[in-house]
Amino acid sequence: MGSFVVGKTSLIERFVYNRFDEKYLTTIGVKISQKILPPVQDLQSSRLIQHTFLIWDIAGLAKFDNVALNYFKGAAGALAVADLTRPETIKDLSELCEKFRSVCPAAMLVILGNKFDIFQQDEKPLLELKKIAANYSTELLLTSAKTGKHVQNAFQILSQKLRTFA
Fold this sequence. Notes:
Strand content: 15-25%
Strand order of the largest sheet: 5-6-7
Largest sheet: 3 strands, parallel
Shape: globular
CATH architecture: 3-Layer(aba) Sandwich
Helix content: 25-40%
CATH topology: Rossmann fold
Number of domains: 1
CATH class: Alpha Beta
Distance between the termini: 22 Å
């Protein structure tokens, strides 16, 4: 979840299909993808656990409405994405996380600062994202859908949070 053009679709394409396309195609409504993660052994029970991600790529949200909030219902977790090169998307992300938690109070969150490959290393957006992550007691990852940096890791962390919560 995140504002328009933060790279949500590109992150999903990188994770599910290991590809990146320079052409921008806006998501209209929602697109659903699936990826089955390899089984991992639970350290406490020693049983194998395998997650199947049903990933809802929700169109960028400028303002919240009932349709958008309905997409959140029943979600076990979310990757909340901001564009590191556009600070306004970080402000929007805080509001989006609040709305998400109002609908799914127990859902897991991981905060992503995307487009790290073209980010100019400005401390202010990083501090704002760290504050959001701390507010939700979760991780912040700096990702690049273009290079693949931390994309797999983001989904693995979300998977681990879901295993811990289950």
